[in-house]
UniProtKB/TrEMBL annotation:
GO terms, molecular function: cardiolipin synthase activity
Lineage per the UniProt record: Bacteria, Pseudomonadati, Pseudomonadota, Betaproteobacteria, Burkholderiales
This protein's name: Cardiolipin synthase
Organism annotation: Jezberella montanilacus
Keyword annotations of the record: Cell membrane, Membrane, Transmembrane, Transmembrane helix
Domain annotation PLD phosphodiesterase: ranges: 221-248, 401-428
Protein backbone atom coordinates (compact mmCIF):
# COMPACT_ATOMS: atom_id res chain seq x y z
CA UNK A 1 0.00 0.00 0.00
CA UNK A 2 2.81 2.39 0.99
CA UNK A 3 4.79 1.54 -2.13
CA UNK A 4 1.71 2.13 -4.28
CA UNK A 5 1.09 5.52 -2.67
CA UNK A 6 4.74 6.51 -3.12
CA UNK A 7 4.61 5.47 -6.76
CA UNK A 8 1.46 7.50 -7.32
CA UNK A 9 3.03 10.60 -5.71
CA UNK A 10 6.20 10.24 -7.76
CA UNK A 11 4.32 9.78 -11.04
CA UNK A 12 2.19 12.83 -10.32
CA UNK A 13 4.71 15.23 -8.84
CA UNK A 14 8.13 14.21 -10.25
CA UNK A 15 8.30 17.26 -12.54
CA UNK A 16 7.77 19.54 -9.53
CA UNK A 17 10.33 17.65 -7.45
CA UNK A 18 12.88 17.76 -10.28
CA UNK A 19 12.27 21.49 -10.69
CA UNK A 20 12.77 22.05 -6.96
CA UNK A 21 15.94 19.95 -6.90
CA UNK A 22 17.35 21.71 -9.97
CA UNK A 23 16.57 25.12 -8.46
CA UNK A 24 18.31 24.31 -5.17
CA UNK A 25 21.40 22.80 -6.82
CA UNK A 26 21.68 25.68 -9.29
CA UNK A 27 21.28 28.26 -6.51
CA UNK A 28 24.05 26.61 -4.48
CA UNK A 29 26.33 26.57 -7.54
CA UNK A 30 25.60 30.24 -8.36
CA UNK A 31 26.28 31.37 -4.80
CA UNK A 32 29.52 29.36 -4.68
CA UNK A 33 30.75 30.82 -7.99
CA UNK A 34 29.90 34.37 -6.96
CA UNK A 35 31.58 34.02 -3.55
CA UNK A 36 34.76 32.18 -4.54
CA UNK A 37 35.80 33.34 -8.02
CA UNK A 38 38.42 36.10 -7.95
CA UNK A 39 38.00 37.03 -11.60
CA UNK A 40 34.65 38.73 -12.30
CA UNK A 41 34.66 37.40 -15.88
CA UNK A 42 35.03 33.84 -14.63
CA UNK A 43 32.25 34.38 -12.11
CA UNK A 44 29.90 35.80 -14.76
CA UNK A 45 30.74 33.01 -17.19
CA UNK A 46 30.06 30.26 -14.68
CA UNK A 47 26.84 31.89 -13.44
CA UNK A 48 25.69 32.06 -17.06
CA UNK A 49 26.50 28.39 -17.67
CA UNK A 50 24.68 27.37 -14.50
CA UNK A 51 21.55 29.46 -15.15
CA UNK A 52 21.20 28.73 -18.86
CA UNK A 53 21.88 24.99 -18.51
CA UNK A 54 19.75 23.96 -15.54
CA UNK A 55 21.21 21.07 -13.54
CA UNK A 56 23.66 20.14 -16.32
CA UNK A 57 25.46 23.48 -15.90
CA UNK A 58 25.65 23.01 -12.13
CA UNK A 59 27.10 19.53 -12.57
CA UNK A 60 29.74 20.85 -14.98
CA UNK A 61 30.62 23.60 -12.50
CA UNK A 62 30.98 21.19 -9.58
CA UNK A 63 33.21 18.94 -11.71
CA UNK A 64 35.62 21.42 -13.35
CA UNK A 65 34.78 24.86 -11.97
CA UNK A 66 35.79 24.50 -8.33
CA UNK A 67 39.43 24.93 -7.37
CA UNK A 68 39.71 22.27 -4.69
CA UNK A 69 43.47 22.43 -4.52
CA UNK A 70 43.31 25.51 -2.32
CA UNK A 71 41.36 23.46 0.18
CA UNK A 72 44.06 20.76 0.37
CA UNK A 73 47.10 20.98 2.62
CA UNK A 74 49.42 20.57 -0.34
CA UNK A 75 52.26 22.32 1.43
CA UNK A 76 51.92 20.50 4.72
CA UNK A 77 55.43 19.05 4.52
CA UNK A 78 57.14 21.99 2.81
CA UNK A 79 58.37 23.50 6.08
CA UNK A 80 60.09 20.23 6.96
CA UNK A 81 61.67 20.07 3.50
CA UNK A 82 62.98 23.62 3.82
CA UNK A 83 65.04 22.59 6.83
CA UNK A 84 67.31 20.81 4.41
CA UNK A 85 67.89 24.00 2.42
CA UNK A 86 71.07 25.15 4.14
CA UNK A 87 71.52 28.29 2.07
CA UNK A 88 74.53 30.33 3.06
CA UNK A 89 74.23 34.10 3.13
CA UNK A 90 76.59 34.44 0.22
CA UNK A 91 74.16 32.62 -2.10
CA UNK A 92 71.36 35.12 -1.60
CA UNK A 93 71.39 37.87 -4.24
CA UNK A 94 70.47 41.34 -2.99
CA UNK A 95 71.54 43.51 -5.94
CA UNK A 96 70.69 42.42 -9.49
CA UNK A 97 72.07 45.43 -11.40
CA UNK A 98 75.61 43.99 -11.77
CA UNK A 99 74.16 40.93 -13.50
CA UNK A 100 71.11 42.43 -15.20
CA UNK A 101 70.00 46.08 -15.38
CA UNK A 102 69.03 48.71 -12.75
CA UNK A 103 65.34 48.76 -13.74
CA UNK A 104 64.96 45.14 -12.63
CA UNK A 105 65.73 45.86 -8.96
CA UNK A 106 62.00 46.30 -8.35
CA UNK A 107 61.35 43.09 -10.27
CA UNK A 108 63.53 41.22 -7.78
CA UNK A 109 61.44 42.62 -4.91
CA UNK A 110 58.26 41.56 -6.69
CA UNK A 111 59.53 38.01 -7.03
CA UNK A 112 60.41 37.93 -3.34
CA UNK A 113 56.82 38.90 -2.55
CA UNK A 114 54.76 36.69 -4.87
CA UNK A 115 57.01 33.63 -4.90
CA UNK A 116 58.15 31.49 -1.99
CA UNK A 117 61.68 30.97 -3.35
CA UNK A 118 64.50 33.48 -2.95
CA UNK A 119 66.83 34.64 -5.70
CA UNK A 120 70.03 32.60 -5.57
CA UNK A 121 73.38 33.27 -7.21
CA UNK A 122 76.09 30.96 -8.57
CA UNK A 123 73.90 29.16 -11.11
CA UNK A 124 74.91 28.03 -14.58
CA UNK A 125 72.33 27.67 -17.37
CA UNK A 126 72.78 26.64 -20.98
CA UNK A 127 70.20 26.41 -23.74
CA UNK A 128 69.28 23.20 -25.59
CA UNK A 129 67.91 24.00 -29.03
CA UNK A 130 66.42 20.73 -30.28
CA UNK A 131 64.63 17.60 -29.22
CA UNK A 132 67.46 15.31 -30.31
CA UNK A 133 69.97 17.29 -28.25
CA UNK A 134 67.63 17.32 -25.24
CA UNK A 135 66.90 13.60 -25.34
CA UNK A 136 70.57 12.71 -25.84
CA UNK A 137 71.40 14.90 -22.83
CA UNK A 138 68.69 13.14 -20.79
CA UNK A 139 70.10 9.71 -21.64
CA UNK A 140 73.61 10.87 -20.81
CA UNK A 141 72.78 12.31 -17.38
CA UNK A 142 70.65 9.29 -16.49
CA UNK A 143 73.54 6.99 -17.35
CA UNK A 144 75.83 9.10 -15.18
CA UNK A 145 73.51 9.25 -12.16
CA UNK A 146 74.96 7.82 -8.96
CA UNK A 147 72.32 8.38 -6.28
CA UNK A 148 68.94 9.66 -7.47
CA UNK A 149 66.85 10.60 -10.50
CA UNK A 150 63.60 12.59 -10.35
CA UNK A 151 61.59 12.90 -13.58
CA UNK A 152 58.45 14.95 -14.09
CA UNK A 153 56.66 15.44 -17.40
CA UNK A 154 53.26 16.38 -18.72
CA UNK A 155 53.66 13.91 -21.61
CA UNK A 156 55.89 10.82 -21.51
CA UNK A 157 54.95 8.84 -24.61
CA UNK A 158 55.40 5.14 -25.23
CA UNK A 159 57.27 5.67 -28.51
CA UNK A 160 60.86 5.38 -29.77
CA UNK A 161 62.10 8.30 -27.67
CA UNK A 162 60.06 7.44 -24.59
CA UNK A 163 61.13 3.78 -24.63
CA UNK A 164 64.82 4.78 -24.83
CA UNK A 165 64.53 7.09 -21.83
CA UNK A 166 62.38 4.61 -19.88
CA UNK A 167 64.94 1.87 -20.45
CA UNK A 168 67.74 4.17 -19.27
CA UNK A 169 65.73 4.83 -16.09
CA UNK A 170 65.17 1.10 -15.59
CA UNK A 171 68.89 0.42 -16.05
CA UNK A 172 69.69 3.14 -13.49
CA UNK A 173 67.30 1.53 -11.04
CA UNK A 174 69.00 -1.80 -11.68
CA UNK A 175 72.40 -0.42 -10.61
CA UNK A 176 70.99 0.94 -7.34
CA UNK A 177 69.94 4.51 -8.20
CA UNK A 178 66.75 5.77 -6.55
CA UNK A 179 64.30 6.71 -9.34
CA UNK A 180 60.93 8.49 -9.17
CA UNK A 181 58.81 9.35 -12.23
CA UNK A 182 55.73 11.61 -12.05
CA UNK A 183 53.51 12.00 -15.13
CA UNK A 184 50.32 13.98 -15.49
CA UNK A 185 47.25 11.76 -15.74
CA UNK A 186 45.91 13.54 -18.84
CA UNK A 187 49.33 13.65 -20.50
CA UNK A 188 49.96 9.96 -19.85
CA UNK A 189 47.11 9.08 -22.20
CA UNK A 190 48.66 10.67 -25.29
CA UNK A 191 50.01 7.24 -26.30
CA UNK A 192 48.82 3.66 -26.01
CA UNK A 193 49.95 1.63 -24.22
CA UNK A 194 51.13 4.10 -21.60
CA UNK A 195 54.79 4.16 -20.60
CA UNK A 196 53.87 3.53 -16.96
CA UNK A 197 53.54 -0.23 -17.41
CA UNK A 198 57.06 -0.55 -18.82
CA UNK A 199 58.50 1.55 -15.98
CA UNK A 200 56.65 -0.39 -13.29
CA UNK A 201 57.72 -3.74 -14.74
CA UNK A 202 61.30 -2.45 -14.63
CA UNK A 203 61.02 -1.67 -10.93
CA UNK A 204 60.77 2.11 -11.26
CA UNK A 205 58.43 3.94 -8.91
CA UNK A 206 56.02 5.87 -11.14
CA UNK A 207 52.88 7.85 -10.28
CA UNK A 208 50.19 9.71 -12.20
CA UNK A 209 49.36 13.22 -11.02
CA UNK A 210 45.64 13.70 -10.27
CA UNK A 211 44.36 10.25 -11.06
CA UNK A 212 42.32 7.45 -9.56
CA UNK A 213 40.68 4.19 -10.57
CA UNK A 214 39.19 4.22 -14.09
CA UNK A 215 41.01 7.47 -14.99
CA UNK A 216 40.59 11.03 -13.82
CA UNK A 217 38.95 11.86 -10.54
CA UNK A 218 36.24 14.29 -11.50
CA UNK A 219 37.05 16.71 -8.70
CA UNK A 220 40.31 17.59 -10.44
CA UNK A 221 39.46 16.93 -14.09
CA UNK A 222 40.36 20.48 -15.17
CA UNK A 223 43.72 20.66 -13.35
CA UNK A 224 46.90 19.43 -15.02
CA UNK A 225 50.54 19.22 -14.03
CA UNK A 226 52.36 20.80 -16.95
CA UNK A 227 55.84 20.77 -15.37
CA UNK A 228 58.85 19.26 -17.18
CA UNK A 229 61.82 18.42 -15.03
CA UNK A 230 64.67 15.92 -14.65
CA UNK A 231 66.99 16.14 -11.64
CA UNK A 232 70.11 14.03 -11.26
CA UNK A 233 71.67 13.42 -7.81
CA UNK A 234 70.00 16.60 -6.52
CA UNK A 235 72.60 18.84 -8.22
CA UNK A 236 71.94 18.81 -11.98
CA UNK A 237 68.61 19.58 -13.71
CA UNK A 238 67.11 19.66 -17.17
CA UNK A 239 63.95 21.75 -17.41
CA UNK A 240 61.94 23.91 -19.81
CA UNK A 241 59.13 23.15 -22.24
CA UNK A 242 60.18 19.77 -23.65
CA UNK A 243 57.86 16.80 -23.25
CA UNK A 244 59.22 13.30 -23.79
CA UNK A 245 57.91 12.26 -27.19
CA UNK A 246 59.29 11.46 -30.63
CA UNK A 247 57.48 14.33 -32.39
CA UNK A 248 60.40 16.56 -31.37
CA UNK A 249 63.12 14.22 -32.65
CA UNK A 250 64.43 14.86 -36.16
CA UNK A 251 66.15 11.48 -36.01
CA UNK A 252 62.72 9.84 -35.84
CA UNK A 253 60.45 12.34 -37.61
CA UNK A 254 62.83 13.86 -40.14
CA UNK A 255 61.83 17.25 -41.54
CA UNK A 256 58.43 16.96 -39.82
CA UNK A 257 59.97 17.14 -36.35
CA UNK A 258 58.51 19.86 -34.12
CA UNK A 259 60.73 22.46 -32.45
CA UNK A 260 61.25 23.25 -28.78
CA UNK A 261 63.76 24.69 -26.33
CA UNK A 262 65.05 23.15 -23.10
CA UNK A 263 67.68 24.16 -20.53
CA UNK A 264 70.54 22.56 -18.61
CA UNK A 265 70.79 23.91 -15.05
CA UNK A 266 73.41 23.57 -12.31
CA UNK A 267 73.79 25.41 -9.01
CA UNK A 268 71.77 26.17 -5.87
CA UNK A 269 68.51 26.72 -7.80
CA UNK A 270 68.46 22.96 -8.47
CA UNK A 271 67.67 22.60 -4.77
CA UNK A 272 64.53 24.70 -5.31
CA UNK A 273 63.56 22.60 -8.33
CA UNK A 274 63.95 19.46 -6.22
CA UNK A 275 61.75 20.97 -3.52
CA UNK A 276 59.06 21.55 -6.15
CA UNK A 277 59.27 17.94 -7.33
CA UNK A 278 59.28 16.60 -3.76
CA UNK A 279 56.13 18.58 -3.00
CA UNK A 280 54.33 17.21 -6.06
CA UNK A 281 55.50 13.66 -5.35
CA UNK A 282 54.38 13.87 -1.72
CA UNK A 283 50.99 15.28 -2.74
CA UNK A 284 50.50 12.47 -5.25
CA UNK A 285 51.90 9.46 -3.39
CA UNK A 286 52.26 10.44 0.27
CA UNK A 287 55.98 9.57 0.17
CA UNK A 288 58.37 12.21 1.52
CA UNK A 289 61.63 12.73 -0.33
CA UNK A 290 63.90 14.38 2.23
CA UNK A 291 67.62 14.46 2.80
CA UNK A 292 70.01 12.28 0.86
CA UNK A 293 70.01 11.07 -1.86
CA UNK A 294 67.59 13.79 -3.02
CA UNK A 295 69.00 16.96 -1.44
CA UNK A 296 72.61 18.11 -1.16
CA UNK A 297 73.97 21.33 0.31
CA UNK A 298 77.68 20.55 0.09
CA UNK A 299 79.54 23.75 -0.79
CA UNK A 300 81.73 21.82 -3.22
CA UNK A 301 78.64 21.30 -5.40
CA UNK A 302 78.21 25.07 -5.89
CA UNK A 303 79.89 26.49 -9.03
CA UNK A 304 82.63 29.09 -8.51
CA UNK A 305 80.65 31.65 -10.50
CA UNK A 306 77.22 32.00 -11.99
CA UNK A 307 74.08 34.05 -12.33
CA UNK A 308 71.02 34.87 -10.18
CA UNK A 309 68.07 32.52 -10.75
CA UNK A 310 64.92 31.66 -8.88
CA UNK A 311 62.49 28.79 -9.33
CA UNK A 312 58.90 29.94 -9.92
CA UNK A 313 56.33 27.20 -9.34
CA UNK A 314 52.76 28.26 -9.99
CA UNK A 315 49.67 26.24 -9.18
CA UNK A 316 46.00 26.57 -8.20
CA UNK A 317 46.76 26.80 -4.47
CA UNK A 318 46.89 29.76 -2.13
CA UNK A 319 50.69 30.00 -1.93
CA UNK A 320 51.55 29.99 -5.64
CA UNK A 321 48.33 30.94 -7.42
CA UNK A 322 49.23 33.06 -10.49
CA UNK A 323 52.87 33.54 -9.46
CA UNK A 324 53.92 33.30 -13.11
CA UNK A 325 51.26 35.82 -14.10
CA UNK A 326 52.39 38.36 -11.50
CA UNK A 327 56.07 38.06 -12.39
CA UNK A 328 55.42 38.49 -16.12
CA UNK A 329 53.26 41.55 -15.49
CA UNK A 330 55.98 43.07 -13.33
CA UNK A 331 58.68 42.44 -15.92
CA UNK A 332 56.61 44.06 -18.67
CA UNK A 333 56.22 47.16 -16.53
CA UNK A 334 60.00 47.28 -16.03
CA UNK A 335 60.79 47.04 -19.76
CA UNK A 336 62.58 50.06 -21.24
CA UNK A 337 63.71 49.02 -24.71
CA UNK A 338 62.63 45.67 -26.10
CA UNK A 339 60.32 42.78 -25.15
CA UNK A 340 60.57 39.49 -27.01
CA UNK A 341 58.03 36.73 -26.37
CA UNK A 342 57.68 33.37 -28.05
CA UNK A 343 54.66 31.28 -27.08
CA UNK A 344 52.94 28.37 -28.83
CA UNK A 345 49.61 29.24 -27.20
CA UNK A 346 49.26 33.01 -26.93
CA UNK A 347 45.91 33.87 -25.32
CA UNK A 348 46.68 36.63 -22.79
CA UNK A 349 44.02 37.77 -20.37
CA UNK A 350 42.89 41.39 -20.00
CA UNK A 351 45.67 42.26 -17.54
CA UNK A 352 48.39 40.82 -19.77
CA UNK A 353 46.92 42.53 -22.83
CA UNK A 354 46.96 45.83 -20.95
CA UNK A 355 50.58 45.35 -19.86
CA UNK A 356 51.73 44.54 -23.41
CA UNK A 357 49.75 47.44 -24.84
CA UNK A 358 51.08 49.88 -22.25
CA UNK A 359 54.67 48.80 -22.92
CA UNK A 360 54.21 49.36 -26.66
CA UNK A 361 52.64 52.77 -26.09
CA UNK A 362 55.58 53.75 -23.87
CA UNK A 363 57.84 53.22 -26.86
CA UNK A 364 59.06 49.73 -25.98
CA UNK A 365 59.46 47.47 -29.01
CA UNK A 366 57.28 44.42 -28.35
CA UNK A 367 57.81 41.38 -30.57
CA UNK A 368 55.49 38.39 -30.17
CA UNK A 369 56.19 35.15 -32.05
CA UNK A 370 53.44 32.56 -32.53
CA UNK A 371 53.48 29.32 -34.55
CA UNK A 372 52.65 29.39 -38.23
CA UNK A 373 50.78 26.09 -37.94
CA UNK A 374 49.42 25.32 -34.49
CA UNK A 375 49.15 21.71 -33.34
CA UNK A 376 45.89 22.66 -31.59
CA UNK A 377 43.66 24.04 -34.33
CA UNK A 378 41.06 25.54 -32.00
CA UNK A 379 43.74 27.36 -29.99
CA UNK A 380 45.27 28.67 -33.22
CA UNK A 381 41.89 30.03 -34.31
CA UNK A 382 41.28 31.66 -30.92
CA UNK A 383 44.72 33.29 -31.05
CA UNK A 384 43.99 34.88 -34.44
CA UNK A 385 40.75 36.32 -33.06
CA UNK A 386 42.61 38.14 -30.28
CA UNK A 387 45.75 39.40 -31.98
CA UNK A 388 44.17 42.69 -33.05
CA UNK A 389 44.18 43.69 -29.36
CA UNK A 390 47.99 43.73 -29.29
CA UNK A 391 48.46 44.96 -32.85
CA UNK A 392 46.36 48.12 -32.43
CA UNK A 393 48.57 49.62 -29.65
CA UNK A 394 51.72 48.89 -31.64
CA UNK A 395 52.99 45.42 -30.73
CA UNK A 396 54.53 43.42 -33.56
CA UNK A 397 53.31 39.85 -34.12
CA UNK A 398 55.17 37.29 -36.19
CA UNK A 399 53.95 33.96 -37.55
CA UNK A 400 56.86 31.52 -37.53
CA UNK A 401 57.67 29.44 -40.58
CA UNK A 402 58.50 25.74 -40.58
CA UNK A 403 57.11 23.10 -38.26
CA UNK A 404 55.28 23.78 -35.02
CA UNK A 405 57.50 25.43 -32.39
CA UNK A 406 56.60 24.61 -28.78
CA UNK A 407 59.17 27.01 -27.23
CA UNK A 408 58.10 29.22 -24.32
CA UNK A 409 60.57 32.09 -24.06
CA UNK A 410 60.62 35.67 -22.83
CA UNK A 411 63.55 38.11 -22.80
CA UNK A 412 63.50 41.81 -21.90
CA UNK A 413 66.09 44.53 -22.49
CA UNK A 414 68.92 41.99 -23.00
CA UNK A 415 69.02 41.67 -19.21
CA UNK A 416 66.15 39.54 -17.88
CA UNK A 417 64.58 36.31 -19.08
CA UNK A 418 61.82 33.91 -18.16
CA UNK A 419 61.78 30.27 -19.27
CA UNK A 420 59.92 27.11 -18.39
CA UNK A 421 56.63 25.34 -18.96
CA UNK A 422 54.18 28.27 -18.83
CA UNK A 423 52.25 29.37 -21.90
CA UNK A 424 50.65 32.80 -22.17
CA UNK A 425 47.11 31.46 -21.83
CA UNK A 426 44.41 31.15 -19.14
CA UNK A 427 45.20 27.49 -18.43
CA UNK A 428 48.89 28.08 -17.69
CA UNK A 429 48.27 31.30 -15.78
CA UNK A 430 45.39 30.05 -13.62
CA UNK A 431 44.76 26.29 -13.70
CA UNK A 432 47.90 24.32 -14.48
CA UNK A 433 50.77 23.36 -12.22
CA UNK A 434 53.65 25.11 -14.00
CA UNK A 435 57.38 25.42 -13.33
CA UNK A 436 59.53 28.31 -14.60
CA UNK A 437 62.84 30.02 -13.94
CA UNK A 438 63.34 33.78 -13.56
CA UNK A 439 66.88 34.71 -14.63
CA UNK A 440 68.69 38.01 -14.07
CA UNK A 441 71.53 37.66 -16.54
CA UNK A 442 72.53 39.57 -19.64
CA UNK A 443 74.32 36.63 -21.25
CA UNK A 444 71.37 34.23 -21.29
CA UNK A 445 68.89 37.00 -22.13
CA UNK A 446 70.93 37.86 -25.23
CA UNK A 447 71.08 34.21 -26.30
CA UNK A 448 67.30 33.90 -25.95
CA UNK A 449 66.86 37.10 -27.94
CA UNK A 450 69.10 35.67 -30.66
CA UNK A 451 67.00 32.51 -30.68
CA UNK A 452 63.77 34.50 -31.07
CA UNK A 453 65.30 36.89 -33.63
CA UNK A 454 66.39 33.91 -35.75
CA UNK A 455 62.76 32.79 -35.88
CA UNK A 456 61.57 36.31 -36.72
CA UNK A 457 64.07 36.51 -39.59
CA UNK A 458 62.07 33.94 -41.58
CA UNK A 459 58.66 34.70 -40.09
CA UNK A 460 55.64 36.38 -41.66
CA UNK A 461 54.35 39.55 -39.97
CA UNK A 462 50.72 39.43 -38.90
CA UNK A 463 49.07 42.80 -39.48
CA UNK A 464 45.68 44.32 -38.83
CA UNK A 465 45.12 44.39 -42.58
CA UNK A 466 45.79 40.65 -42.80
CA UNK A 467 43.33 39.89 -39.99
CA UNK A 468 40.62 42.20 -41.35
CA UNK A 469 41.11 40.77 -44.83
CA UNK A 470 40.16 37.26 -43.77
CA UNK A 471 36.88 35.84 -45.02
CA UNK A 472 33.89 36.54 -42.78
CA UNK A 473 33.33 32.85 -42.00
CA UNK A 474 36.98 32.50 -40.99
CA UNK A 475 36.77 35.48 -38.66
CA UNK A 476 33.50 34.16 -37.23
CA UNK A 477 35.06 30.75 -36.62
CA UNK A 478 38.00 32.38 -34.87
CA UNK A 479 35.74 34.48 -32.64
CA UNK A 480 33.68 31.45 -31.65
CA UNK A 481 36.88 29.60 -30.74
CA UNK A 482 38.03 32.68 -28.79
CA UNK A 483 34.86 32.56 -26.67
CA UNK A 484 36.06 29.20 -25.36
CA UNK A 485 39.62 30.39 -24.69
CA UNK A 486 39.29 30.25 -20.85
CA UNK A 487 38.59 26.53 -21.15
CA UNK A 488 41.09 25.50 -23.87
Amino acid sequence: MLATTFGTVMSSFWPHMLFAFTTVVSAIAVVHAAMTKRDVRAAIAWVGVILFSPLFGAVIYFVVGINRIRKQKVLAQLDNMLRFEEIRDRLLVTAVAPFSAPQFAAQKKLGDTVNRFQLLGYNQISMILSGDEAYSRMISVIEGAQRSIAVQSYIFDHDKVGIRIAQALIDAKGRGVEVRVLIDSVGSKYSRPTITKMLEQGGVKVALFMTTFFGLRLAYANLRCHRKLMIIDGVHALTGGMNIRQEFSATVMGVEAMQDTHFDVRGPVVHQLMLSFAQDWSFTTGESLTGEPWFFSNEALIPDQGVPVRCVPSAPDDMSLSSNHSILLGALSAARHHVRIQSPYFLPDTQMLAALSTAARRGVVVDIVVPGANNLKMVGAAMMAQLDQVLEPGCRVWRASGTFDHSKLCAIDSAWSYIGSSNIDPRSLRLNFELDLEIFDQGLAKKIEERIDSVIASAEPITLELIEGQAFLTRLRNKIAWLFSPYL
